[in-house]
Predict the 3D structure of the following.
Amino acid sequence: MNTKLVLSAKKNIEFRDVSFHINDILSRLVLSGITLEIPQGETLVLLGRSGSGKTTLLKLINGMLLPTKGEILVQGASTRDWDPIRLRRGIGYVIQDAGLFPHFTVAENVALVPTLENWDASRTAARVGELLTLVGLDPSEFADRHPRQLSGGQRQRVGVARALAADPPILLMDEPFGALDPVTRAELQREFAALARRLGKTIVFVTHDLREALLLASRIVLLESGRIVASASPQEFLHLDHAEVHAFAASLDMTPGASA
Amino acid sequence: MNLQSGAWTFFVEHRDEIFGATLDHLTLVVIAMIIAILIGVPLGMFIVQRPALRAIALGVASIFQTIPSLALFGFLIPIPFIGGIGKRTAIVALVLYALLPILRNTYVGLTGIDPAVLEAAEAMGMTRAQILFRVRFPLALAVILAGIRTATIITIGVATIAAAIGAGGLGTFIFRGVALVSDSLILAGAIPAALLALLADFLLGLVERKLRVS
């Protein structure tokens, strides 16, 4: 069990020639030949159409999926060698539907990983208050509510707070703002962009929304049919000469003013 | 009028006997339900993890439910250890009847959980056991209880037939009433049984509503 690993400052996450295929009759190749280094503190946005392999790539990082070929190193150790439970408790995870536990209060949801890690009650309570404030929710008003008593935007804020609870060095986000109305989405994107800069965590963010990618990313990686076809800073990205980049850029032109 | 006053007089005159039979009936139901819950809920949790056993367990439980109750009691009589005449055989039959609703609802409750919740639980580093006991089970509890409620009502009804194999209970009055063509006797068994079923339905319904998480 690799309980404690020295945090390698340079390469926090590294994909070494990774392929992944679903083991069904068709044996579909979901990802192939992925080589990618994600340094500490980077906000990497994985951009691509539905079915391009973005979510699969994300799930390979926290060991929810293991690669068919190649390996993924997280803080210097392969995801095959990590104890999956320890690996995941050190990686925050936010998904589109938040996935909050409906039978837990907001405070209990945020306290999930600290509770699993047996923090003492006062430390957990202090951390919950701190995090709710961080994501813009007044603890005195929201801590004792249940998820069903929250709006979609508030649920996502709680989802982010829960992911950050144990102060993980890595944060994985799978279209976290995808199901929100455009106004709330823009609001959360702006706030999250500021938060991400402040936290200095390694963030891997999945989206199919180029506008969101340009706003949040320190680097954009474009996936097409399971392959990386482009990797660039937001400033350079739109100048790349690649058909899929053009396709995404065109989607930007066609929806002026909207963020979808 | 005649029937009503006749039944009423009978009730008053035989209240101790009726009360005793009701208690016997309740005892049969409670014992059978406790055993059925102790088998059905853990078995339901087990087949969630073992898809291969799912069809077999649910299939066998369904078959028991299709056997007419009087026939099931009859079938059990010649079987050694669990069979024979009396309460023990009746309890075995009642457990077999109660099993399907409990098993099926446990399974449905545990598997009918929002996939996003389960994905988050796994991604946050919960173990399989933690996911089962802290997420799946609490969220399935209302559905499991609905199964227990259905099973209890079925059991209260079927337990009246247990009198046919000498297990006592409210069925004693009903069988005697049928034999003697006495409406008063039949009602003395049927009315308390109906009241028990309504009461159980109401009380378990209250608990179920408290547990439901929307």
